[in-house]
Amino acid sequence: MTESGTYNEYMSIAELYDHVVPYQERQDVGFFVEAAKESGGPVLEVGCGTGRVLIPTARAGVEITGLDLSPHMLEVCRGKLAAEPQEVRARVRLVEGDMRQFELGQRFRLVTLPFRPFQHLTTVEDQLACLGCLRRHLAEDGRLILDIFNPKMESLVQTAFGEELSEEPEFSMPDGRKVIRRHKVVSRDIINQVNYVELIYYVTHPDGRQERLVQAFPMRYFFKFEAEHLLARAGFEVEQLYADYDKSPYGSKHPGELIFVARKTKGEDRGN
Ligand SMILES: C[S@@+](CC[C@H](N)C(=O)[O-])C[C@H]1O[C@@H](n2cnc3c(N)ncnc32)[C@H](O)[C@@H]1O
């Protein structure tokens, strides 16, 4: 957040986001679209970003609200939506808001957080505030899908800080810019389970001009049991835990993902 209260983390890279090769290759869209169709809607996607999942969901005929704190990511999403047929646009509502504190005046049959927005929340207080908001917005028999990564032990003990690493292919923007992305672990706060990371975009313009854009952010990591305890504390019971978007069960691969499908704990009245 800046002093003026604007969330700028994605400002300089929002327009690049959809072109990043590993993002384009993610295998999660079908999983979330299928869950949305099964729920019947309406769906709330928290941290919807550029609409990578939200737009295919609306195309599949499901009503969906996207909440995101970044005006820059939402602007990209709006631009993409403008090119969609009217019936798709009519199924979408976009809201600029903070997942720790929002009120949409509506309940949803499915609430999702695809591709780890929850890991932007570094404190237990923020995590519980968010889960409380999600619970209030969930219909009685609705489902929550919390998508976080399973920490890889080997990576957590690596001490290579400050080194820019690159394993990704270069990508091109429609206007001819060429982009190479590298990543760097700036520091690890093992005590609080937070990695401070940077994604660094080296942009070469068609006229040869060079630019270096940096997205710097903290990434909180959770192990299975902590996430389960958090969900229980917030009034959720876990129905499924997948290691992948193909629904492989937890434990079938490592590290895999931690994809929790949860519902409100039965018989528990929290007044929401
Ligand atoms: C990695 S992106 C995921 C975007 C999208 N769900 C996808 O799958 O491509 C994380 C998103 O979370 C959003 N975000 C981060 N903190 C947030 C907060 N406190 N409230 C709402 N959105 C937030 C960011 O702006 C960003 O768009």
Written description of the protein model:
This protein is an alpha/beta fold and 272 residues long. Helix content is 25%, strand content 31%. The chain has 9 helices and 11 strands. The strands form 2 sheets. A 7-stranded mixed sheet has the order 3-2-1-4-5-11-10, sandwiched between helices. Strand 1, helix 4 and strand 2 form a beta-alpha-beta unit. The mean pLDDT is 95. The protein binds S-adenosylmethionine.
A few lines on this structure:
Helix content is 25%, strand content 31%. The chain has 272 residues and is α/β, with parallel strands linked by helices.
The fraction of residues assigned to DSSP E strands is 25-35%
How many helices does DSSP assign?
9
Radius of gyration: 19 Å
Please state the overall shape, judged from the principal axes of the Cα atoms.
globular
Which sequence of strands runs across the widest sheet?
Answer: 3-2-1-4-5-11-10
Which residues form runs of ≥5 with pLDDT under 50? Answer: none
Using DSSP, what is the number of strands? 11
Q: Taking all residues together, what is the mean pLDDT?
A: 95
Please state the structural category.
Answer: alpha/beta
Proportion of helical residues: 25-40%
Could you give the order of the helices and strands? Answer: HHHEHEHHEEHEHEEEEHEE
Largest sheet: 7 strands, mixed
Bound molecules: S-adenosylmethionine
